[in-house]
Amino acid sequence: MLQVRPVDIFSPDSLLEGDVPKSLVYHVPSRIFTNAEWEAVFLISLKYSRKAMSRMLGTSLKAVEHRISRCLEKTGTTTGDELLEYCRRHNWDMYVPPRFLKPRFRLFKASTAMYSVDSSFRKQ
Questions:
Q1: Angle, alpha carbons 42-6-25 (nearest 5°)
Q2: 82-101 residues labelled b (16+ CB within 10 A) or e (exposed)
Q3: Which residues contact 32 (CB under 8 A, 6 or more apart)?
Q4: Which pTM does this prediction carry?
Q5: Does 74 fall in a domain?
Q6: Name one GO biological process term (predicted).
Q7: Which of 71, 76, 74, 17 has the alpha carbon at shortest distance from 45?
Q8: Residue 33 belongs to a domain with what CATH number?
C-alpha cells in the first residue's frame, strides 16, 4: 500500500512573491552545535516531543533536555520556536543530520490528511 498526501505547488507567481522552495542541506551549516545538538534541533523542527526524541535517539530524556538547553544557551534563545527562528535567520533550517538519512528512521508522523492508494494499481 502506498500513502500520498497533497503537496504545495509553486507557480511563477509564487516565485515572484518570494515563496521559493528550499533544498535540503546535508553538510553541517555551522560549527555552533555538536552533532548531537544538531539532531535535537532537527527533531524540534519536526515538532517531536522530548520523550519521542529520547526514544528515537536512544538516549535518556535528561540527555535530550540537556542538548536542547545547550542549543538555547548557545543561541541566546529561550524556547524551541525562538531557536527555530534563529536557525531560519541563519539559513540552517534545511539541514538534515546524517543519522536521519538512513532508511531505518521514519521521520514523518502519520497524518489524517494522508490518503491510502493501492500500489497494485498499474496503468495498462
A1: 30
A2: ebbebbeeeebbebbbeeee
A3: 74, 75
A4: 0.69
A5: yes
A6: regulation of DNA-templated transcription
A7: 71
A8: 1.10.10.10
